[in-house]
Specification:
The protein has 245 residues and is of the alpha/beta class. It has two domains: 7-76 and 146-244, P-loop containing nucleotide triphosphate hydrolases (Rossmann fold, 3-Layer(aba) Sandwich); 88-145, no CATH class. The chain is 35% helix and 25% strand. The strands form two sheets. Strands 6-7-8-3-9-10 form a six-stranded mixed beta sheet, sandwiched between helices. The chain has a four-stranded antiparallel beta sheet with strand order 2-1-4-5, covered by helices on one side. The radius of gyration is 18 Å and the shape is globular. The protein binds adenosine-5'-diphosphate and magnesium ion. Magnesium ion binds at residues 45-46.
């Protein structure tokens, strides 16, 4: 059995006042799948992720995790945000151990080692680089051995090189642990590097979907990789421009 759990959102509608952000959206991820959602800024990606995480409720439609309707937070799901959200008054190790039972605290050191920060357990978050802070945020999410990892542009604020490193790290951790991933990004290259499937969110719905059938890790220079990135970029831009016009 895969440690990953399936998630399925159907007919999701979410409006803020008169502004309809999600207009009957369907999206699903199979156990252990890595699904990436791309879309331009303001298209409703974070709104969708909050709904999948149970941090917000749809006006209409339903989210099911492991076949059960989601009511509040799913216990075996974790979310990583762009800003990491570490607690500045706790050292790195304590941030990672947050929420673990006393029997599980050894996991904190394990996952810190997995993200390459075993030595930084006693440091304050403030002295870490942006990339290191996101690795701590990732370690904190993984410490609980989640079955579902929801990622809202977790690499969005990192420089290009750190971003590439972190993509590799995320891929390795996902391959090793087998959880289901839903990653939100505006970066199509990142989407193709990581996703089994790439989904285009626009106008409150899924307007495009691509299966990425390339061996991992996915070398950037590879012709198939570049072609798929170009194809998705062109399609996404054509659709988005049609909507904005
Ligand atoms: N709590 C809220 N109240 C009012 N409007 C919101 C709220 N959350 C998001 N929105 C609006 O919904 C739209 C989509 O936002 P968001 O999901 O954050 O987009 P993305 O993550 O794709 O950039 C935006 O127009 C945003 O202003
Ligand atoms: Mg967002």
């Amino acid at each position: 059995m895969s440690p990953g759990v399936d998630i399925e959102a159907s007919g999701i509608r979410r409006a803020f006042g008169s502004k309809v952000v999600l207009a009957g959206l369907d999206i699903a991820a199979a156990p252990g799948e890595f699904v990436v959602v791309v879309g331009r800024s303001g298209c409703g990606k974070s709104t969708l992720l909050r709904l999948l995480a149970g941090l917000d409720k749809p006006d209409d439609g339903e989210v099911r995790v492991g076949g059960e309707p989601l009511r509040g937070l799913y216990p075996a799901a974790r979310v990583v945000f762009q800003d990491g959200r570490l607690l500045p008054w706790l050292r790195v190790g304590a941030n990672v151990a947050l929420g673990l039972s006393s029997r599980e605290t050894h996991r904190a050191a394990e996952v810190l080692a997995e993200v390459g920060l075993a030595e930084r357990s006693h440091d304050w978050p403030a002295i870490l680089s942006g990339g290191q802070r996101q690795r701590v945020a990732l370690a904190r999410a993984l410490a609980a051995s989640p079955r579902l990892l929801l990622l809202d542009e977790p690499l969005g604020s990192l420089d290009a090189l750190t971003r590439l490193e972190m993509q590799r790290l995320l891929e390795r951790l996902w391959q090793r642990a087998g959880f289901t991933s839903v990653l939100i990004t505006h970066d199509v290259e990142e989407a193709v590097a990581l996703g089994n499937r790439v989904i285009h969110l626009a106008n409150g719905r899924v307007l495009g979907e691509w299966v990425v059938d390339l061996p991992r890790p996915r070398p950037r220079g590879n012709a198939q990789f570049t072609e798929l990135v170009q194809h998705i970029l062109e399609t996404v831009m054509r659709i988005d421009q049609g909507i904005l016009r």
